[in-house]
Every structure is written in C-alpha cells, then in structure tokens.
Write a structure and sequence with these properties.
Largest sheet: 9 strands, mixed
Distance between the termini: 37 Å
CATH architecture of the largest domain: 3-Layer(aba) Sandwich
Number of helices: 13
CATH topology of the largest domain: Rossmann fold
C-alpha cells in the first residue's frame, strides 16, 4: 500500500560532529512546544543518547533513521509512523552533512535529506574562526545537488564583533540566511562518550530554561517555520509484515528503567503488532519476574547503576533461574552485561545474574563503536543460519573473562565490527541470545516472528 504524505519539517545538520546540533535541536523543540506545536523528533544514525534526549524533550518517542541499517522505503515509513500524529517534524543529522561510509557519501545525512525532501539548517561551530565560514558555507552549497541549505545558526559566538564578521561574510558571499546565534552557554550538560550524558542522568530544568530563553531571543523561529512548510509531498510505501500467526496470549518481559533504556521503538511496536503484550520490568524495584514467556533486555549503561542492580539479588536470581529453565531471552549490550558474572567499573566489582560465565570490565575508551555486519555461523532460534545481518555497536565494556563452557556457542562471525573480541559476537546459551550488536527490526524483519514463536513454545510448555 502507498500513500502521499506531507508535514512541515526541517533537518538540523552541521559541518562536523560536536558543533552543537543536539543542543540546538533540543532547544528548538522546547521553543516550538512552548508555542503550542506538537513536535516529533528523529535522529539520523544509530545513536540512542541523542535520541533519548529528543524523546524526553518532545514527549514523543524519537526514531532513528538509518540508510545503512534499512532501506529508503523503510526510512520513509519510519518517518511517517513517527510524525503522522504531530504538526512538525525535526530530524537531527549526525557528524557532518556529507559524511558517509565512503568518498561518495553513502548513508550520509545529505542522502537522508534528499529522500525526505527536507530543507537543511547548518549549525556552525564559530570557535576561533570568522570569514572562513563563508567559504565553508559556499562550498557546502555547491558540493552536492538536490540539497536545500536554507539557513545557518552561529554557535559559540564570543562577542558582537565576532558575530558581525561571520554574519556579514556569509550573507555577502552566499544567498544563505543567518538565522541567529547561540552564545556560549553556562548550564550545558556534561559530555561523556560521544555526546551528552544520557537524559536519565541529568536534571535538565536549568539547562532548558537557559537554552529556551537563548533561542527565543536570538533565533528567527518564524523563518524556520516558513522554510519547514515549503516542502514537497512524500510517497510512503507500507512494509509487508508477516502476521498470519497470532501471538495475542504471549507476554514479553521488557527491562525498561534507567539502566536499560535503549530500544528502537519499531522493535517493540512490531512485537505488539503481532499480538504480544509488553510487560515492563524495573531492574531496581521489581523483586520477581512477572508471568511472561520471554525476556528482552535492551541496551543502556548498567555500569552507572551497577551497585543498585547488584543489590536486587532477588530479581537477578529469578532471571538466572528462568533462563536456565529455557525461557527465551534476547539481550543487547547492557542486557548482555547484566547476564554476566560481574561488572568491573571504577576498580569495583559488582555481581550480576551469573547466567553467563563472563566478567565485563568498563574501560575509558570505546571497545566497539560503529556498524556491524555479522555472518550467522551457528544454528540458533532467532537468526537464519548462513545469513548476514546488519546492526551497530557502542560499548565501553569488554569481556575480560569467558570461562570455557560446552553449553555456550558464538553465533556471529564478524565481517565488520568488534563484538566480543574483534572476531565473534552473539552468545547462545539454551534459548538465550546475548550480543553487543543492536539490531533494528527493519533490518532483520523475521527476528520478531522467530522470537515470538519461541516464546509461544515456552508458554505452552509452562501452561500459562
């Protein structure tokens, strides 16, 4: 099925990573919501820290749009599903506008902008630079066709003279409008890893008050709204999801709290579309597992809450017993760490569930970051033997101990990515598959069916 769809929309990009895209996007959403607009937000690429912030500020689940993980039509569909009940859509790019996987910019923010037919605003980091930014903007305009760079925002402006030289240079040498400035702010959240700390760890009240005031006073919001409305109609194709089997009586236990917050919305939505009920579990507060037929443990930063997680011994024991009994479980990154023997962080050891004979150490530098291509080399309940799957990883932890165990197999052979040791990822133990690799359902559409089939089998065996 195809439909024609339109919504006011804008894409926020830059000449590089770390220029202030996320801070500006957060502020713009906050201002537009204060004006009474219902705003949906999207993050280009697999990043979930930024997506968490955008979800928190917009009050709507931010969706990741990613041309590496899934194809153009599914990106358009995800954009439609995420924005159809709103009045305005904001897409935040990643890295620089034209940065992609090769010299041709494959999977870049620019390619996404072309697909979404969306005007672009560039956030320019003005630290220690003036007139040269005019040359940069001029080059960006001429570099690639079918990209509408409608305006720029000058970030980290030091003083009025600094602003005037940059503004006048850009508007003299190009037709691009300077939409305003952002001076250096005092209350910014600290950065960790590749961006801001997670939205769960920061009280954003004072930060948002300062940011919203700054954007109201310094940015031409009216011009942004004007640009957003002059956009072409999109053609949306609905994906075919196998739904001949009903899983309406299947309940999936989903760990969702400050330690485990990263789930692509579509992953949970398609499980629900297929009839399953999501039962959310708090790893700090819940002492017992609810009556569920499978477990889904997503990503996050469990090391930040490791002491609290290890203190809930009742739940750790329940999880271990359920998986040993054969309950299907799927765990990604943070969930994998929770299922190990212990987590070592800041020179302290925190006991975990001991489902897997593994010890994880959280390091100061990334142990895996970027896209993953994995060949499925071992038979397992969820992925087709011999197939190739795409995903992404982002982890500072690594296994420092894996005891030999004949009951454990490594499912993925890595063609790209780091995984557990640079060669393999995906640990299979009974009906558990635990991996550093995050998958998006649009990339591996059959995963949901296979996961629910195992849950259904377990439910029937347990007779509840």
């Amino acid at each position: 099925m195809k439909i024609f769809y339109n919504i006011p929309r804008i894409l926020i990009s830059s000449h590089k990573g770390g220029a202030g895209k996320t801070v500006f996007t957060i502020g713009l959403i906050s201002v537009l919501r204060a004006l009474g607009l219902n705003v949906s937000a999207f993050k280009k690429g697999p990043d979930y820290i930024d997506a968490g912030w955008l979800s928190k500020i917009s009050k709507i689940s931010c969706r990741n749009l990613d041309l590496f993980l899934f194809d153009e039509k599914d990106n358009l569909y995800s954009f439609y599903i995420g924005s159809k009940e709103t009045e305005f859509a904001i897409i935040e790019g990643n890295r620089g506008l034209f940065d992609g996987l090769d010299i041709f910019g494959s999977c870049s923010t620019a390619k996404l902008a072309q697909i979404l037919k969306v005007p672009v605003i560039l956030i320019l980091d003005c630290t220690k630079v003036t007139r040269s930014l005019a040359a940069l903007v001029k080059g960006f305009i001429e570099f690639e066709k079918n990209i509408e760079i409608k305006g720029v925002v000058l970030n980290k402006i030091a003083r009025p003279r600094h602003e005037n030289i940059i503004r006048n240079s850009i508007e003299y040498y190009t037709d691009v409008k300077v939409l305003g400035i952002i001076p250096k702010l005092k209350s910014l959240p600290q950065e960790r890893h590749l961006g801001l700390v997670t939205s769960f760890e920061y009280n954003e009240k004072f930060f948002l008050e300062e940011l919203q005031k700054t954007i109201k006073e310094n940015i031409d919001i009216g011009k942004i709204l004007e640009f957003s409305k002059k956009v072409p109609v999109l053609e949306i194709e609905f994906p075919e999801i196998e739904n001949s089997i009903s899983f309406k009586d299947v309940k999936i236990g989903v760990f969702k709290d400050e330690a485990f917050q990263f789930y692509y919305p579509e992953n949970l939505e398609i499980l629900a579309t297929l009839g399953a009920e999501m039962v959310f579990i708090n790893a700090f507060k819940d002492k017992k597992l609810p009556k569920v037929s499978a477990l889904y443990l997503g990503g996050g930063f469990p090391e930040v809450k490791a002491e609290l997680l290890s203190e809930n011994k009742e739940l750790l024991k329940e999880v271990k017993e359920a998986i040993i009994e054969g309950m299907p479980a799927y765990a990604e990154c943070g969930g994998l760490m929770y299922l190990g023997k212990e987590i070592i962080w800041n020179k302290k050891k925190y006991p975990m569930s001991e489902v897997l004979p593994m010890v994880f150490s959280v390091e100061k530098f990334p142990q895996g970051h970027g896209y993953v291509i994995a060949k499925v080399k071992e038979k397992n309940p969820y992925f087709k033997l011999g197939s190739s799957i795409k995903g992404h990883e982002f982890h500072y932890s690594r296994p420092v101990e894996i005891k030999n165990n004949k009951d454990i197999k490594f499912v993925f052979e890595l063609e790209k990515g780091n995984g557990l040791n640079g060669k393999v990822d995906g640990i299979l133990y009974k009906n558990l598959l635990a991996t550093y690799t995050h998958i998006h359902i649009f990339s591996v559409k059959y995963w949901a069916i296979n996961f629910l089939k195992k849950a259904q089998e377990f439910k029937e065996q347990k007779l509840y």
